[in-house]
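Researcher: Quick sanity check before group meeting.
Model: Go ahead. Protein one:
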Amino acid sequence: MTDNTRPPLKKGVMQLVDEAMSEVVTLTVDEAAAKVNDPNVLFVDIRDSRELDREGQVPSAFNVNRGMLEFWVDPQSPYFKEPLGDDREKVLYCAGGWRSALAAKTLQDMGISNVSHIEGGFGAWKEAGKPVVDRERHGKK
């Protein structure tokens, strides 16, 4: 099938993002930054490792490649990661806020109610002059 004969998508990516944004809690950069040192909040960076190596991350953020999020958050999965299984609020972010909106919606669909994402993502975070640290590498758990 060539691109000219491909059937139209039922929903495009921007429609999915818009729907997710209407259903998840979106924090401004300032609202998110106020939570950085809160022990009851876990920042979850869903960007890939190349993005983290190149740009750094929010201090103390836990990195989960977007493709593994559902597996790492599910206690029944062989890939489960303990930091994602506790009752802390999860604040997700990506580069620009689209992937994190979709990811937050997915976590809500899985039954996690205390999840949000950062409006504008890490790009907005950096632009606002919020703290950035080099990528923290987490051991296998």
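Researcher: Fine. The other one?
Model: Protein two, sequence then structure:
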Amino acid sequence: MTLRFADESAPSTPLHLVSQNELESWRETLDKTASGWLDRLAFGAALGETALLPTGDGAIAVAGYGTEQARRRDRFHIATVAGKLPAGTYELCTSMPQTVLEECALGWLLAGYSFERYKAKPAPQAWLKAPTGIDATRTEAIANGEALTRDLINTPSNDMGPEELEQAARALAEIHGARVSVTCGDDLLSEGFPLIHAVGRASPRAPRLIDLTHGTEGPSLTLVGKGVCFDTGGLNLKPGASMGLMKKDMGGAATVLGLASMILSLGLKLRLRVLIPAVENSVSGNAFRPQDVLPSRKGLSVEINNTDAEGRLVLADALALACEEDPDCLISMATLTGAARVAVGPDIAPFYSTDERFASALAASAARVADPVWRLPFYEPYEAMIEPAVADLDNAPKGGMAGSITAALFLRRFAEGARSYNHFDIYGWQPTAAPARPVGGVGQGARAILEALPEILGL
């Protein structure tokens, strides 16, 4: 779906955002009828509280609450108000600082998202006019990049396999004049992507490596996204409870495509490359097995100790390819480990970085745009945990300790030599409804990266 602000010429209802310390002064601006309704409703300007007040001419004045302090506990709190309003067009009236106003505007757009592919008709919507002073074009580009990510994750796997993920990349490329090449099926072996082929070969839906490029000038940015369109666990079959959400295992691919959409829509002057190893990890007679030792594009051999640790395998070949062009900045995003969720929960995107400049810029930008991240270490003493006796690397170290870190260390082996390698172990799913984030697929880290790019790449 497309998220946008209301037409500026449309008639609108004023929406007053009133903090508790502004309540009395705002009350004094109301006519007697509206003020009386305010009393009857016992409106106290609590977070998310709304009051629909009829004015003397029969129109509606709406009051809500939003402050910088509330943002600490509830990102996009304005979205709570937006979800309670009747269909119509609204215009913000507030003395909020510019940074908070920007978050309010984005939160409102994101609150308008719903996954409508299988619905008979969309729900009615409360529209917002772009608040004065914000960059409406940028805000819409960010919201629609996030909507793309959500749509891709939310689509069930019967309609979102490797081929459909390729089609999504091609559709994005067509809009922005980008180029796409795809290596598919057994061609993966002849072209040097044995790990991608091994993971995807058991499915009747052919595995592939999707390669999108755009731009010939400026610094280079390569995004690598895990595109496991469904993960049964392979021969190490997942239990039913663990398999239920595995349509979201291509959340890394969905997130890098959403970020690419933002970058392309905003016309950033850089050389962009997006690599997506797209597979389905299935079970059949030719599935890869525990204890197999597989080659990789980089030349490192990998012992398979769990076929359910497949995401790092497909990323490994893609990272090796990415490093052959020596990009200025290399980022991988993947729904990679349950260990990351145990460490920081579903709302925070943990990341790893070899680049102090990237890490500091990202932390600052994440705070500015309310897109939480947390840095975890490439802890080198754990390197021995990913070194088995019979191969160069182990895809699933025994013991279950430091699972996110050892996965990140595994990936770093395939990004050695990169000027700046940064890995995000995201969840990609909103388990409970929150302001501007309904239950379902969600982007993580993309807005923070976008905000940090000018500093990271010198744009």
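Researcher: One line on it for the slide.
Model: The chain has a mean pLDDT of 94.
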